[in-house]
Amino acid sequence: MKAMVLREHGGLANVRLEAEFPDPQAGPGDVVLRVRATSLNYHDIFTRRGMPGIKVPMPAIMGLDVAGEIVAVGPGVDDWAAGERVLVDPINRVEGGLMGETVHGGLAEMCRARAHQLIRIPEGVSFDQAAALPVAWGTALRMMYTNGHVSEGEKVLVLGASGGVGVCCIMLAKMAGAEVVACTSSAAKMERLKALGADHVINTSEQDFVAATFERYGKPSRRGADVHKGVDVVVNYTGGDTWVKSMRCLKVGGRLLTCGATAGFDPREDIRFIWTFELKVLGSNGWARDDIHKLLELVRNGKLKVPIDRSYRLEETVEAMKTMEDRELFGKIVVTP
After folding, report:
1. What is the DSSP letter of 143?
2. Is the pLDDT score of 263 beyond 80?
3. CATH class of 3-132+306-336
4. Residues with Cβ < 8 Å from 244, sequence gap 6 or more?
5. Among the CATH numbers 3.30.930.10, 2.40.50.100, 3.90.180.10, 3.40.50.12780, which is that of 136-283?
6. pTM
7. How far is 179 from 173, CA to CA, in rounded Å?
8. What is the DSSP string of 187-251?
9. pLDDT band for position 327 (50/70/90)?
């Protein structure tokens, strides 16, 4: 089969198309899928570069989010049949492991997965839509609702709003009845964020988001009426030099939600803001199986749209990864064999 193969960590040049990579075989408890769509996540960039403490078996095929059709089932698989449309939960919750990292993922014509990882794709949901959901949107759902408890009337500031996680956070916050402020460094994406539902947009290439937040909601204080100034929630999955700035925007008792660190995992810290304003820092690590089911149902009934920025062919994967690495996307990028 054709596959985009990583044989050693490094730059984009280390990801190469191989035309005769061995086809996966269905062993006991396995299924083999014909891949119809794989969405890229920033985790794929980290996998390609190499991550401290995580050993990736080589050669590796990246691509955590995989949707396709079953073409073969292994011994002991009774609940699935060839031809069924399925989405793979990237986390192996029984034996351990992660698609596209410890086992081969979806950047290939075919992919093997454990049968217990499969989720049926409902009628009315496309392969592209399904493949966009698990990692970014599943994590966003857990961060915003399960752990973050975003609710009606709250003011929510979303950093990195045009990425895969960010656009979902905006839609989920609006579904909850919150007022949403979206941050982007691209003037071209401002109108798209408004069309997505953002009430206000800050262009961070022209204005500091802290100053803009103070201008709209006031500078947080512990005194008198000023205790109500600031925002209730900041979504920050970038880290880096935005971390302490995010805390400065929060009102007394505010919540800082995080699920990643695409701009740096070891930012400068100032814990005085945490105790002074009694802030809550809430992390979300991945998603639960039920989160994916909820998302598929929200997409099926039209309550949640899936903004797919671009679709690339398998042989264009390097270009797709560069688009993500350069942050030139809005929503999700999908690769189709």
Report:
1. I
2. no
3. alpha beta
4. 267, 268, 269, 270, 273
5. 3.90.180.10
6. 0.88
7. 8
8. GGGHHHHHHHT-SEEEETTTS-HHHHHHHHH----SSGGGGG-SEEEEE----GGGHHHHHHTEE
9. confident
